[in-house]
Design goal:
The chain is mainly alpha-helical. The protein contains 8 helices and no strands. Helix 3 runs antiparallel to helix 4. It starts with 8 loop residues before the first helix and ends in a 5-residue tail after the last helix.
Length: 171
């Protein structure tokens, strides 16, 4: 679904190499499948981000750890952000999970202005712009990893170098 958000269940089953009846057994329609994926990915990514930010006191280290957490979530993070950019019609029933996800997002958004106030991140860049850079840096990492063009051992270093320099962090 990362390749085609609007793919029908038949195409999704084919790409996942499972029988379409298996999908229909668990999901009545495409929206139900997407909602289930969204909840799973929201839980996985928000917990990883909260653990990452809680593992450091230094805001730069927190931002770096959150980038690595998003990178480790990989395609789940990419798909989750794709759903945020291209909202689909779904209702979130797990309010606690959504609150946890919002907490992780809010923590990320609070780090950027804090680092701008400390003159570590360039003031000319808005937090929204920096979030798009963050998301697309992770997306590029996933694509590079999947293509095999970049050595896996170099990914974290390259991801942080790319992101940090793009927002004015020179450490």
């Amino acid at each position: 679904m990362n390749k085609d958000l609007y793919a029908p269940l038949e195409k999704i089953a084919n790409e996942a190499q499972i029988n379409k009846r298996t999908l229909y057994r668990y999901f009545s329609d495409r929206d139900t499948l997407i909602a289930a994926c969204y909840l799973d990915m929201m839980q996985t990514c928000s917990r990883a981000m909260l653990i990452a930010v809680g593992s450091h006191n230094d805001p730069i280290a927190q931002l770096e750890a959150m980038l690595y957490a998003a990178m480790d979530c990989g395609v789940k993070y990419v798909f989750l952000t794709t759903l945020e950019i291209n909202p689909v019609n779904m209702e979130i029933h797990d309010k606690d999970l959504f609150a946890e996800y919002e907490q992780a997002r809010n923590k990320w958004f609070s780090l950027v202005p804090q680092l701008q106030q400390e003159n570590i991140i360039d003031h000319q860049l808005s937090p929204a712009w920096i979030r798009h850079l963050f998301i697309n840096t992770v997306r590029t990492c996933v694509q590079a990893q999947n293509s095999g063009d970049v050595a896996p051992n170099d990914l974290k270093r390259l991801v942080w170098l790319t992101f940090s320099r793009s927002i004015g962090i020179s450490k």
